[in-house]
Structure to design on (131 residues):
């Protein structure tokens, strides 16, 4: 949550302005998004501190946390695939949140990669189109 919350706020502020924008107001909104981005870096600081402290107290028994913390030691060659699969998985969870499992260790990377990659390409296309 601490890592994705700032991105969600930026996307919300960028794509869902509070009022319809008159001509030329898009630049004002972009400036607001940039200032919000810099303010949200402050939210990232507690996340970094949390993961650092968590890594100090992680036991070797907890496989899920060890995998999560292991990404700081090395960058996987399939980082984009894993990232896109995670995006696809959580998009599915937004629409259909079942099963309600707190400890998810394995996902269907093939299926969720396709969903996540399509969403990320669409998102990049929208960002490039709006500027």
């Amino acid at each position: 949550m601490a890592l994705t919350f700032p991105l969600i706020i930026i996307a919300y502020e960028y794509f869902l302005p509070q009022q319809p924008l008159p001509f030329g107001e898009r630049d004002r909104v972009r400036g607001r998004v940039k200032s919000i981005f810099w303010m949200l870096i402050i939210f990232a600081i507690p996340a970094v501190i949390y993961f650092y402290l968590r890594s100090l107290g992680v036991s070797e028994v907890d496989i899920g946390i060890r995998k999560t913390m292991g990404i700081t030691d090395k960058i996987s060659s399939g980082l984009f695939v894993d990232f896109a699969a995670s995006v696809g998985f959580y998009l599915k969870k937004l629409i259909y949140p079942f099963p309600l499992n707190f400890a998810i260790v394995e996902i269907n990377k093939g299926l969720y990669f396709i969903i996540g990659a399509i969403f990320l390409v669409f998102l990049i296309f929208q960002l490039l189109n709006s500027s």
About this structure: The chain is about 70% helix and 0% strand. Residues 82 and 121 are 15 Å apart (CA to CA). Helices lie at 5-15, 26-57, 63-70, 79-95, 109-130.
